[in-house]
Amino acid sequence: LHKIPEIGFNEYKTKEYILNRLKNLNCDIYEIGNTSIIAYFNNHQEKVIAFRAELDGLNILEETKLEYESTHKDFMHACGHDGHMSIILSLADYLNENIVPNNVCLIFQTSEEIYGGALEVTSSEIFKKLNIKEIYALHLWPKLKEGVIYSKSGSMLASSTEVDIEIIGKTAHMANQESGINAIKVAYMLLNEITYDSDIIFNCGKITSSGSRNTVCPYIKLECSLRSFSLTKKYFFLEMINRISKELAVKYGVNVYINSSRCLPVVLNDYGLFVKHQNLINEITEPFFHAEDFSNYSSCAKTLFFLLGIGECDVLHSSKFQFNTKVLERGLDLFINIACQK
Question: What counts of helices (H) and strands (E) characterise the chain?
Fold first, then answer.
């Protein structure tokens, strides 16, 4: 799996690999969209529970020098999704050989990194018909003790809102710049006026513009991300951006358009599930500002999300990200324990 990373909604080789692993097992296989898969192990029990793994990799050139390094140039499993899939596939082997006191769905979900993967699964008729009551997932996590499982009740990971800001000015030759309206200058002023406290993270990670080096820039787009744990603070922050944008638009004669419609909710862990499985977990006290589209499953079922420590290593989304693959056995043990509890 590590050799064949693919971008979200296009994980065709990954899907083929998973289907080949599942085809001889005693489970029903459902395909959703282009690449998502659900494997259903019907043990004729009352309750259906599920475990989720993500299929997609990242558009990153790998620099690990691993013997199983990516064969897809400029693509890499730099977020551990290959490890998550490996755990779930091993769980499938266990479920094929052992009867557990639950019906179990294994969700292989497209596109966690690009918005919409979880929503494609949860909006499907197949997912709705399965009537899943509990959904579990984990994520490999650098800097946490290797092989140790962590979680907490309530807020686990932050909400993530994609904020796109487009500023339209007026072009002119630089020698006649008084005739133009410089969108870059307005963008600079906008970013400098935005303030926030420690409960929020706001970042502009990509800037694109039109024009040339000897003209006044007529257009700029800021691609930003907002992380928060409070809906109230999130909406207050977005209102502040809108207010500042309107003030700058009036003052400098630009048009400003803001799109913040793409949003992942906070990853919320169900208190009852946390208490039920607390003996398997090392509790953490503070949530992380990372985000995960696993949050979209909380509107459909009770959810519990774990972090599997992988020790001192390069951070997630790094071109040198790698981990000791033996820790995956701890993830498998965790999921087997949960599947075997009534």
Answer: 8, 14
